[in-house]
Amino acid sequence: MINVSFYGNSIYMNPVYSAQRVSAVSGVDSVSAGRLMPDATKVHKSGELEGPKECKTCERRKYKDGSDENDVSFQTPQHIDPENSAARVMSHELEHVANAREEGMKENKELLSATVSLKIGVCPECGRTYVAGGETNTLIKTTYDDKNPYDKGRKTVEASFLSGMNVDYSA
What's the mean pLDDT in 49-67? Predict the structure, then answer.
């Protein structure tokens, strides 16, 4: 998992897990993130390395955005090459962060944090590691003007919806 956090004007990337691919030489399997990947890279008769072939599972894997934001990529299911999945998913999640930053710049709003988490998976068929998806969590603070009578009325209505939602029955 790779965590990316946004605070103020800075983006912090905290790699919790990193996958590294080691190319194979003749007759040796390649290793990715400590897991053996049989026949992922082969040596051609001419002596040049051939790249890994996508298995049927990797070939059929599709990515789709599950949020209600219509201005981000992956609104329809799309295939991503496992080699490019980290970059493509991260750029998609950063689109959500950009939307949160834009929302946080509006009047009476402040973006407190935006955190991106990437989830890594391992293909059960070929053993290749790939980024399986991502999630962006944002925290936006909205301030209300107490002098505005409409804001006072909205607070009263919102309070009536929220009252009794958190009740401690243990006492």
Answer: 82
